[in-house]
Design goal:
Strand content: 35-45%
Largest sheet: 12 strands, parallel
Distance between the termini: 27 Å
Helix content: under 10%
Number of helices: 2
């Protein structure tokens, strides 16, 4: 009875908040399907979905008609499934954004499955910039972009999971211009041609993402034209390699990334200029750690670790060892069998990056709590960082900083507000810390983690996805 009461209170609160900002309608309820609701709404309005499963007419091939409408799951992250029921003889996807939609058009908390289309199996984006967050894309297919595809779209994709999508090119994503992709996971996607996970995106900013076990032409392939940045990303056990950079880059920055156990580490061809910094390329199985197919490639390693590949400092990076802080050392991961790529405190990578930061996407781990050295001095403010990876299964790491000695608590709560774990509860000197939560015994869903330090309270969300 208590759970039902809490859900009702939360629903009423959501209604009141949305009403203050715009109209809120329910599907099912006032409208029977998504398209019917869109047709009656305007920018600033919200469609609140309370059914766990949507399919059929009006719930697929939905167009926003240029309106900044929020499509909100009322059942939490990935809590509402949209089944497109597409197939080769009857093509359908979930959403079509081709009428000037911007970041005010939001997809939040859906699981989209069984899309089938020529471009963008689940979502088609043409010169628009919607926001897509807290969603899962699974078992979708397209020739270009198994889950999301289009032309020069610039979406923000946040805290999403792409799993088992398939395409001829771009198993999960293809054909975008300047997308922002963060805190997302791409796993077991496949492309027949190239880009097992992502292909043909221009000027992308990709941060805190995991690319693992994708197949076909590199996990991320064909990052074409303009400047692009990869930050704190992991490329692990991809069948056809980690990163392939192709043609016409002004520059490509790779900062604090980890390439582990792929068919090859990184590959480049065409007129490309790649600058990996604080990055490790280790234990990849292919011909070389970095493969340059043409002579018109400039590769500048800075504070990188290249180790355990078939050939390490070879080819266009042959002269990099010992220069600009580059090393060749066992990274000393905590547990590769469990894909825990955090570092032992004794690893040369723990403080081997520029300015003493870690090399690779993760810092020191292996124990419930560990202090991360801050060579630039003590933190200047209280900070609770977004957990990584997110979504995760079963474990994730949470970083936080305190500028003064104080009592600190970090605890995990479910969406009902019930505490499920205490990760840190002690007096801590000023510094930066990391704690790990293992959600093996917890159910899939959204969890909150809260930092309490003196009068400071900060809370963030994370998604456990099994």
């Amino acid at each position: 009875m208590r759970q039902v009461s809490i859900m009702i209170v939360g629903l009423v609160t959501a209604v009141l908040c949305a009403t203050a900002q715009g109209r809120l309608v329910f599907v099912p309820g006032e409208f029977t399907n998504l398209q019917e609701a869109v047709d009656s709404l305007a920018t600033g309005d919200t469609i609140y979905v309370t059914a766990p499963y949507l399919s059929g007419y009006g719930n697929r091939d939905v167009t926003a008609d240029g309106k900044g409408i929020v499509f909100q799951s009322g059942l939490g992250a990935a809590g509402v499934t949209i089944d497109c029921q597409g197939n080769p003889g009857d093509e359908h996807r979930a959403f079509i954004f081709d009428s000037g939609e911007d970041s005010l058009t939001v997809i939040d908390g859906f699981r989209i499955v069984n899309g089938y289309a020529d471009t963008g199996g689940a979502i088609y984006i043409n010169r628009t910039a919607p926001t897509i967050r807290n969603s899962v894309f699974e078992d979708n297919y397209a020739s270009l972009g198994g889950a999301i595809g289009g032309y020069q779209g610039a979406p923000t994709i946040d805290s999403c999971t792409f799993i088992d999508n398939e395409a001829y090119r771009g198993g999960a994503i293809d054909g975008l211009g300047r997308p922002v992709i963060r805190a997302s996971r791409f796993t077991r996607n496949h492309a027949a041609s190239r880009g097992g996970a992502v292909s043909d995106v221009h000027g992308a900013i990709v941060s805190d993402c995991m690319f693992d076990e994708n197949t076909g032409g590199g996990a991320v392939f064909d990052l074409v034209g303009g400047s692009a940045r990869l930050q704190r990303c992991v490329f692990a056990r991809n069948e056809s390699g980690g990163l392939s950079v192709v043609y016409g880059y002004q520059s490509m920055q790779v900062e604090r990334c980890t390439f582990y156990g792929n068919a090859y580490g990184m590959q480049a061809l065409g007129d490309t200029y790649v600058v990996p910094r604080n990055t490790m390329i280790v234990f990849n199985r292919g011909d070389a750690a970095f493969c340059s197919i043409t002579d018109s490639v400039t590769i500048l390693l800075n504070y990188c670790n290249v180790y355990g590949n078939v050939r390490n400092y070879y080819g266009c990076i042959a002269d990099n060892l010992g220069e600009d802080g580059n090393i060749s050392a066992d990274p000393m991961f905590c547990d590769t069998a469990a894909m825990d790529l955090t570092l032992l405190s004794s690893s040369a990578c723990a403080t081997g990056g520029a300015g003493g930061v870690p090399i690779g996407a993760y810092g020191v781990g292996c124990t419930p709590t560990s202090i991360v050295d801050d060579p630039a001095g003590l933190p200047q403010a209280f900070e609770l960082q977004q957990n990584f990876p997110n979504p995760f299964n079963p474990a994730t790491t949470i970083g936080f900083s305190v500028p003064i000695r104080t009592h600190v608590s970090v605890a995990v709560y479910n969406i009902l507000g019930e505490r499920v774990a205490v990760l840190f509860d002690q007096t801590a000197p000023a510094g930066s810390y990391e704690v790990t939560w293992d959600g093996t015994a917890s159910a899939s869903g959204v969890y909150l983690y809260r930092l309490t330090a003196g009068d400071i309270v900060d809370t963030r969300k994370m998604l456990l996805l099994k």
